[in-house]
Specification:
Blueprint (H helix, E strand, L loop, with lengths): L4 E4 L6 E5 L5 H4 L13 E3 L2 E5 L4 E6 L5 E6 L14 E3 L2 E4 L11 E6 L5 E6 L4 H4 L7 E2 L2 E2 L27 E2 L4 E5 L20 E6 L5 E6 L14 E8 L2 E9 L4 E6 L5 E6 L7 E4 L6 E3 L5 H4 L27
Antiparallel strand pairs: 1-2, 3-4, 4-5, 5-6, 7-8, 8-9, 9-10, 11-12, 13-14, 14-15, 15-16, 17-18, 18-19, 19-20, 21-22
Length: 329
Amino acid sequence: FPNNTFAINLDTLEIVWEYVPVQDYDETVPVMCCDTVNRGLGYGDGKILLQQADTTLVALDAKTGEVVWSVKNGDPKLGETNTNAPHVMKDKVITGISGAEFGVRCWINAYNLSDGSLAWRAYSMGPDEDMLMDPEKTTSLGQPVGKDSSLKTWEGDQWKIGGGSTWGWWPFDKERNAFYVGTGNPSTWNPVVRPGDNKWSMSIFSRDVDTGIAHWVYQMTPHDEWDYDGVNEMILVDLEVKGKETKALVHFDRNGFAYTLDRTNGALLVAEKFDPAVNWATHIDMKTGRPQVDARYSPEAHGEDVNATNICPAALGTKDQQPAAYSPR
């Protein structure tokens, strides 16, 4: 914040143009979580894409800095803000939303790059049609998710304030016309008042770029008690896994486990601690994909008015948003 954007001549280092957005500080900054950061710009079709903190998505002419179009992606009055970079994929601009700490049911949006019109929206939880999930064709660990896979894991209508912020980084698999997005913590923070797995917070989705339809989904931290946002980057790499050449997705989660999945179908291939100090769960059950939680490090298991201590990792995670990379060596 305040998201001022500059074009700089690389030869002379002179400022070519500057765009200074008008945003309401008092309305926006108090509900930004966490910190008043901006994670970068997007570019496509001669346009610079700026996702402002107040949720305004702006397309600027890359040569002149003039506004080509702008659209409101959310409303800070409702606790909705943005810190992510917009991602250009084909003729779409993909952007998320933050606000799980304020009871926002979060989403991932696609806007048409040409004019800023909304192409599709997919929520992190709720009815199948809101999430762009097909009960028979969308899978989890190789099985159809079935009808109301999200609603069945919430009590009453708490899914309406279910969180699952989408403020991360989303790689594009051009061959499959798919991109991959992680969702954050469920809302509210207090796990006692939201029994169930709280799907599909804390999950990795494979989605079609054109339609947003979910191919597959995998939940890493069901019923999150620790704020282990599942938004860290996904690394797409073709490599040998257990003796088989695999189109893989590798994800080092804040919860301290590193996951390798087959990105074509969501099959879970590897799930291991990448820090031996991780103690909130002993291991991942490879048949169910579920972490085996150690009750000694479960805040909910300790009950009210008890301070659970020595949990590893803490909310910032074993690895936060510092990106990982793949080397064939």
